[in-house]
## 1
Amino acid sequence: MSDSRAEPGMLRSALALGAFAGLATLVLAVVHTVTSTRIEVNRQLALRQAVSEISGALPPVPLPRPLPPRFLVCDGKRPVVLLVTGVTRGYAGNIRFLAAVSPNGTVEGVRVIEHTETPGLGDAIEAGKSDWILGFAGRPVPKGATWALQSDGGDFDGLTGATITARAVVGGVAERLSHAATLPMTCEETSS
Amino acid sequence: MSTREIAADGLWRQNPAFVQLLGLCPLLAVTTTVVNALGLALATGFVLTGSSVTVSALRRFTPDHLRLPIFVLIIATLTTVALLLMQAFAYTLYARIALFVQIIVTNCVIFGRAEAFASKRPLGQALADGLSMSAGFALALVTLGIVREVLGRGTLFADLEALFGDAARGLAIDLPGSGLLLAALPPGAFIVAGLLLALKNALTRSNE
């Protein structure tokens, strides 16, 4: 039943497609190999910049990428800063944040790293859009989820037109830190 | 077609965004600032020119009934190459527009030119067309970017160092007022794009 005079048979087509696919794979493999070191360096740099915005100078140890939910930055055996990431439900989806806590239990800073809140209203939680997120710096780590907006009886400023967003961030950060930042901070001896 | 005709088509007479109405998704989504628009213009231009050149160079080896999947393969490969190069050499810019560089592969301008032009023309013409259409798309992107940044954020050329390095930092202009939020959001993008389209039509008509 095979008709060898029909338009190009399946085998020929498969070979032609395979040849193109092979060529594409080769090009991608070359470009990937040539750029991979540079890309890793850039990613590490971007992470360090984001972290040192809230934690101050970091010792020259590489940060694991992606950051685990709780990571203690150590300089030898001396704890430098505890990095905690967490997620809370905002008005329009999840809000992911990064917090830096010093070894003496003070929150050095918090930044929102991912969110989908309303532009012009809820996005004031971004450091670039308003100073609201700076209100976390300098506070001692809460012992329970005890942080609240002023309108809820606490002492955090609210956000005009974005109460739900503000409440979610304040509550979510307090909840996360009260668990993660109250564990002992000890650096492991690195084996040489 | 002469190079001049190809260039005139790409830049104005057959401008991919304002005449052919292709590539509107990235056009509207990414033009909130000039630096984002320029970054995407460069990445799209790379993929569009590269794709037109490759399709033209390989046109005698491309079986006719397989040309669509092969065009998609070429465009997708070039998009990934553009993505890797951006991550390696312009990471800050990449972080701002990563999603839109990834969807360059869906930009109809590129596929359209491969099918309608590059697959039937010699290498030199395909190169000229790729460059011209890229320039035309860049013109649309940057024009929209300027209008939306000035109206929506009240700045001009902000954050240009993400693309051109620290030397460009001084070019940012801060205008009085913080801008009209609508212009920075998608509905504003549609409205501004529509007005620019009407302007182009008026200019074209008055020349006839």
## 2
Amino acid sequence: MSGSRTLIAQVGALFCRHRDEEGLADEIATHLELLAIEYQRRGFSADEARAAARREFGGIDLTKERVRDQRGFLWFDMLRRDVRYTMRSLLRAPAFTLAAVGTLAIGIGATTAIFSVSNAALLRPLPYPHAEDIWNVRTKFTDGRTTSGMVGPVEFTRLKDPAPPIMKAAMSGRQDLTLLLHDGTPRALVGSGVDEGFFPLFGVRLALGGGFTPQHFYRNGPQGVVISTRLWQSEFAADPGIVGKTLTLAEGNMVIVGVAAPDMDVPRGTDVWFTLKLDPQSTSHSYDGYIRVRPGTSPEVLANRLAAVALGLGRDFPGPERNRVFVIQPFVEAIVGDLRPVLIIVFSATALLFILACVNVANLLLARASRRSREMAIRAAVGAGRVRIATQLLTESVVLAATGTLAGLAVAFIAVRALLRYGASELPRLQTVPFDTSVLLFAIGMLVVCALGVGFAPMLQLAGPGLEKSLRERARTAGGTRATHRALRMMIVAEIAVAVTIVAGTGLLVRSFLNLQRNDPGFASRGRLTFDVVLPYSRYRGAAVELAWQQTLFTRLRGIRGVTAVAGASDFPLRPDSSTTGPLIQLDDWTDAHEHEVSPQHVVSPAFFEAMGMRVQRGRAFTDDDRPTTAPVAIVNESFARKYIGGRDPLTASLTYGFPRPDPRTRSKIIGVVNDVKYGSLWSSPDPAFYLVDNQVGSSYRLHVVVATSLDDPRVVIPEIRAAVRKMDPQLAFTVEPVTEVVAATLTRQKLGTTLMLLFGAVALLLAAIGIYGMIAYSSTERHSEVATRMALGATRGNIFRLLTGQGLGVAVAGAAIGVGIASGAGRLASSWLYEVKPSDPWILGSALAVVVGVTIVATLIPVGRAARVDPAPLLRLE
Amino acid sequence: MRTADADVPYGTLDLMVLKTLDGMGSLHGYGIARRIEQLAQGMLALNQGTIYPALLRLEQKGWIRSTWGTSENNRRARFYEITWDGKKQLAVETETWERAVAIMARMLEKAPLENKS
């Protein structure tokens, strides 16, 4: 009890130090004067009295020191001295310090970066209350018919029925809008139409304004919009009086009725929420659906309710609803779904790296400690207790860990910024990754773990029972216990194995990425640009108007210097909205047994194949002579011809298409075959598809334009293209991109993954090298006396060399063997991510092995070379 | 870390200080040192400075408290007095000492001391 009271007093005393010292000085002065007075009364002279007083008092400074010790300053002073000594000795060994701090910085930095990303993306709760009770709803047919998979208003009218367990149901539909700025410049916005249940379902209050009223959802009611915080800040400078003002859109002006909360991000990326005015009985499946269920609802109860509703719908609307069922997915999963396994893998890999970094530093410390054992022995002899020595050693690891953590935080900061710049679009919820208190606490936690883990080994060795033995034996080194040695050797083997695995994995991914890049998508991308525009119905009524506009634009674009061809299409390959599915088709020679064949359909202008550098393999391309008045024609790609037309000459076949059934009125003669083009992704095989000409079937909602030039860098003509379009319609918002960038953009995710793996590989290699270096250096120092003796007995440098390298090689071989085994096994698991690369590709495994072994050899040679060059004489003299 | 004085182990010095203050009320450092020497009837000669760490220790444990005042030579000095906790501690330690002395006396077969407990 009194012990803790003393401790509290001691801690408190730290703060009043100066005052207390002064007080004591005063007290002592008073005491001395009183003593002197007494002596003077006894007959001493003033000087003699003072001297006698001082003698009787005893040592003044000694008294002050003892009081200081009792106050508890001593431990604080000692700590300060320890830290200063540690920093001095660390600065005297720059190579070691740099290696240790660098290793820790990388380990801690990488782990902290991944943690903050995971924290932001996964652990941070969604801003919607009880988000775990929200589900996404889609539909599908049980009889195999094709559907968009979306939901229709009639289904949600039924789901909104207040019957448990579903508490709320809502829909949204995406529509792109064009904002017109003050100067008339158009800007593309993401718009989402929502029904009246939407905002209440997600339960996030608006930042400003009252939001939608029931009137907004009436057929003839007013049109109001809610804008996002992002839009409010960027376009309206966070105007607090924004509610009631008008949003000027090319599609029509709307009144702003509210600003959404900053966190509100469903549907993802929405700038403007407007109201859907729906027919409650409509079966148009064009919307995304959401439901909120009562907390604690079991999946069976929910499934039963949904099945019951679906059954009722099928009965009442036999056409579109028969055999249609609901498919639900937890809302939370839909947002971060496929990210979780990736993050888990990456986190495990980083944690492994961190542990390896700590092992490395422990190794380095051991090597250093063995050189300091003499110093430690002397300290012990002069009276330092075991605890004192242990504290000193721990100070070193704490200082290293603290510096490493500070540097690591800087590394983490940079890493997160870089990660965001590269992959923010791929990783949801990462518009901001806060560097907040939880991240900081995590880093401090790592610091503590690291300091303890790393300092443990040298502490055990030097402050442990072996100390007395070393003193007695007067050996140069204390020598770690066998167990420590063995443990460290196994760690190094593991390090090498992991390094081999990671380097091999990197090799596989890099090869895969290169294959993808070299992949031929089926069209030419050099010298080409593309952009897309939406011609709003309000100003362009009818196919004829649209086509006329298009023709004029194309003529103007063709007039630009450098342009060789201009064409339009309903979709563009490798773009997110490219068609990978289409209407049902039927060839003229099919019987009813061929039901339910679906094929993507692309509507293009006649110059399309030429502009895209595609080859017409048989027959001809479309021409301007293919008009609404001439026979309907179609062109198929080679996969289509191979799959559906088989042995026949394609030019003799005809095709009909349509949804929900092929429409006989669309019967078109196949006039040509073109090469395959990958519309979906570079790594999937191209779909069979057919082309129609826009003159005959009309242009589509979104017009994609491709401009082919003969220039090396086609971007020089972008301003002229923009001017031409602006002259024709200043209210269209669009971006012009080189086609090469469109193709490269599809590989962003792979690029991110490959770059990460390259980083991991490099770091793992570096750590393995440092680890080997440390281990060999440590054992070489240990065996100095042995080396010296052998040399004195006649061993050559070569013999010594072989003796010391033998250890390193043994470890390297073991590690490499294990690593190769793991690498080939892991490669098989990851084969789904690899593109045209065999997981156990011998070239890659072999090069990984070579790289790691090479690094190992270099790391071994340096300390061994130094040890072998040592002059044995002074070593022997010291024995 | 042992700060033992050559003459007096610091455990007993604490006890002496407490006993002195118990009888004498409020004293400053010089006064306490002189008083202890008086009570010890010349058998003890301490270096007077050793009293200060002991006084701090006792104050940290809460057995004495100090206030600033003016000494008889008009200088600033701390005056110490015993607290209730200190009086309790004094009683406990006195009993412990007397028991130890009695046991040792019996063991050494010297003239039996009167058992004062």
